[in-house]
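anyone seen this seq b4? input:
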Amino acid sequence: MYRPAKEYEAPWWATILHSFPHLDLTFQTVNSSFNLDDPKYKESLMFWAAAPVIWLLVTLVVFLMYFCYRCCQHDTEKQRNVVCLKWTMAILTLLCCGAVGVGLYGNEEANKGIMYLSESANDAMETIAQIKSKTVAMQTAFNTSITHGINGIRVVYRSNSELSWNQKSDLHTFTDRSLQYARDIFDSINKINLKVRRVDLSSLVHDLKDYSFYRRLGMLMVLGWLMLLCLILLVGIGSSSKCTLLLFCAFGIFSLVLCWMSTGLHLGASIGIGDFCMAPNPFFEELASGQVESDFVQYYVRCDHSVLNPFRSTINGASDKIHQSNKSLNDALSILNKNSMNKTELNHNALLVSRGLEDMLTALMPLNALVDCTNLHKDYIDSLHGICYIALPGILYLILSAAETGLIFSILVVLASKAWKSVGSKKSYLDAEEDDGPFIPRPGGSSPNYYSYPRGRQAAARETIHAQRRSTPPPAYNSNEFYRQYGDVNPPDDYCGRESNA
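predicted toks r here
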């Protein structure tokens, strides 16, 4: 697992993407700061997303012109050797398989970065949930223990006739003061709870997981399809199958559309993420401004220790109020213990109040650490590293893979359309027009077809003929002598008759 640094710094690839010119659809320069609420900024991302699509349209137009030319062309030149063409196509196909492999790696890296972001958001949610649980525990302690205990103490001393009016007045003052301190603690903690309750990242985590799953699955299907086409082409090259080559040409053009569409989508997304990675703090501050106060967001996003924790005064005040409430309670108990009364009921209610104040203090101590910016800021930095240091390079690998695959497929479609007319057809005989030897007369209208020789078993005899032509002067042409000399070739049945009649 990638371990991020303590502080975030924008990576160099984000700097390069951020330096791309940001133009709207009217080719006017717009602000490159990440702002999805600005329609002009959205147009600048659409501009780069449309660039590969425009290249796709140009490629399809060139293909249309090329195939029209091939349909209208009459091939008079006979191609007898396509080995070089096959090797070229095989090498390009293997390079395309490598490009698809790079895309598979980039797809996994992009998915890993998104999952890293999701895990960081989950960690932040756990911290927020712990803050909520501590505040709820303090509220429960106030409602169930402190309030009931102080009311029980009031019942005890009000029903005691031995207490003087001044003593009852002091007891009333101490118990009211203790209850008021506890109520102040409740109000302070409730403010923290209300602010934390507004922050809900569960929908973001759920959407990230869904997006990561479907994006990864879709890219795996596209890359798997491209790899399948490469294998089909290799089979077609090895077996010299015209049908396989034509099948690749048909589906290869469709795959070009997938490649360049994927390049456009990922290119626009990568430029937007690059802009975000250059300055992520303003985006989150603007995003959370409608939920909580800006000073709270800035404190957790920036985590500047020179800035006072906005919750620190509330927590310190609550801690002081707990000690003051406990002191007022002890003052009331000291008066009651000097008089004879129901000690059992008094001790029970006093114990309720003491346990309530102790529970509030126990929940307040870790709450002080939870609301500090250290934990949430670490989760924030981890999420930025997941986006900018893991997911963004993965997307760049996907762009490189899709663009390279699209270019190689464009070349392979042209080569496959050129090769399918040559592969799969083998000639058994050589044309006599290709032989210009002195002993071989040109065929006439009624001449027998003995001017061509098979490639197979007659190859040695033909080499002998060529050797004799080079070593002996050409004799006067006599057809019977020719057949006697080259007895491997039998004359027609009626040829001797025609000679005798002549």
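The radius of gyration is 45 Å. The chain has 14 helices and no strands. kinda curious what u guys think
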